């Protein structure tokens, strides 16, 4: 087994972490989101704090989302901003970008937003309805475009061809690292990806060979990922 990294090896490092789901409102009382709980982001933040880093944490909130639980002594090194939409996430993250050394994008950002959310409550009717949606903002792409030497670690959950899709994303998005993991097809169970305390997959690097990381707790995976990118 790998030796535990010494506490404090990330002292002086400042990292921006996006986490959790984003949501897109339909009307005053309804919204669309995805299965993200924020667990992977919380694990990356907790490990960063444990090793001495400063964390700027932009969290998409929804019912039951998991927040990092920094030990009291590290609270001062953690700044948390809660958002709902992809657009709010991009705005909050952009504000932190100039002060950080790197970006970890664990957030499951909604790729589409409802074009014209109703300000009131839409009433029930028996006719079929159609919801017009538009592409939402690319949070990571927006940060990349504004970057000034920061490194980037992205995450990708894939149902098919995990490593090939992951490699394509790493190249296309111009990232330094991308962790790609299989995620269950609709209706199936899985020990990787959304809503479970474990994860496993492959860390792809712009330079260097892929690092296979078998299924383990998200806390342990966060340790291994931080050690690999540190
Ligand atoms: N991401 C983001 N903003 C978006 C979409 C994705 O910041 N609007 C980030 C995620 O946080 C993740 C990375 O980009 O770190 C890859 O997300 P993913 O959804 O896998 O990429 P997409 O290009 O949206 O591909 P797909 O069509 O498979 O959803
Ligand atoms: Ca996406």
List keywords for this structure.
Rossmann fold; ligase; alpha/beta; single chain; two-stranded antiparallel ribbon; binds cytidine-5'-triphosphate; 5 helices; globular; FMN; 230 residues; magnesium; 12 strands; binds calcium ion; eight-stranded mixed beta sheet
Break the fold down into its secondary structure elements and pairings:
Elements: E1 14-19, E2 24-25, E3 31-32, H1 39-50, E4 54-60, E5 78-83, H2 86-96, E6 102-105, E7 112-114, E8 133-135, H3 139-146, E9 151-158, H4 162-173, E10 177-182, E11 198-205, E12 211-217, H5 218-229
Parallel strand pairs: 1-4, 1-6, 4-5, 6-9, 9-10
Antiparallel strand pairs: 2-3, 7-8, 10-11, 11-12
The structure holds cytidine-5'-triphosphate (CTP) and calcium ion.
Residues 18, 86, 105, 107, 109, 111, 136, 138-140, 154-156, 169 line the site of cytidine-5'-triphosphate.
In short, what is this structure?
Residues 15-230 are annotated as: Phosphopantothenate--cysteine ligase. The protein has helices at residues 39-50, 86-96, 139-146, 162-173, 218-229; strands spanning 14-19, 24-25, 31-32, 54-60, 78-83, 102-105, 112-114, 133-135, 151-158, 177-182, 198-205, 211-217.
